[in-house]
Amino acid sequence: MAMDRTEPGVSGTATGRSLGLLVCLNCRATVRNVKAPHMRCPRCDARLRERKPHSLAVTGALLVAAAVLYVPANVLPVMDTRTFFDTESDTIMSGVLVLLHSGDWPIALLVFIASIVVPLLKILALGVLWVSAWRRSPRHRQQRSELYRLVEFIGRWSMLDIYAVSLLATLVQIQSFASIIVGWGAWAFGAVVVLTLIAARTFDERLLWDPPQ
User: Fold this and answer.
1) If you placed Cys at 181, which of 18, 80, 87, 137 could pair as Cys (CB 3.0 to 4.6 Å)?
2) CA-to-CA distance for 181 and 47, rounded, in angstroms?
3) Residue 21 in 3-state DSSP?
């Protein structure tokens, strides 16, 4: 966490580190005069660190893995529908189309946004934040910090993505009276959700405020 005391792009930005302040990432308490190593928060007893160790390396690896798995999550079948007469494989998008054709457009819209749009936007947003922190860009720091908080907030609702796919499978099963078998696409999709959630947690927002080298 940091406080911007200057215009964007102008040197001389006052940060928490330069003012002798440190924010506890667990309870958001502001602690003054943090100098001793391994100091703990007086409010929640969590360990205080100036920066999360290896934040960029860990977050970058998680983002790459999530971006790679996003492709099979949307290309491979998320479920195999088996009836007495036929077996059909459905991806997330084909399931959305089935719901549209059956008139369940609100559910189709929910599944499309939660399962296709939101994971992609989370990957892109975290990628932008990662590049900004890596380059130590002095521009638009406040906006990028707000973007991170938005991604973190959405992460609290990440199980909605899993719920949307589960709802899709349930509706198809009810409408066709078929048995549903989870496909590899569903496992890849679940991995994307978990990886983006962890990536948001391992990313250190304070890196966005570090001065250029």
Assistant:
1) 80
2) 44
3) strand
Eight-class DSSP state of 23 = E
Kindly report the backbone phi and psi dihedral angles of residue 19, in degrees, each rounded to the nearest multiple of 5, phi listed first: -95, 5
Over residues 39-91, the pLDDT tens digits come to 777 778 777 777 788 899 999 999 999 999 999 999 988 876 666 566 667 78
Q: What single letter denotes the amino acid at residue 76? A: L
Q: If residue 196 lies in a helix (H) or strand (E), which one and from where to where?
A: helix 184-202
201: left (phi over 0), alpha (psi -120 to 50) or beta: alpha
Distance CA 163, CA 148 (A): 24
DSSP string for 109-165: HHHHIIIIIHHHHHHHHHHHHHHHHHHT--TTHHHHHHHHHHHHHHHTTTHHHHHHH
Two tokens at 107?
A: 């559910």
**Which residues are paired to 79 by β-bridges?**
90, 182
For the chain, report the end-to-end CA distance as a whole number of angstroms.
Answer: 19
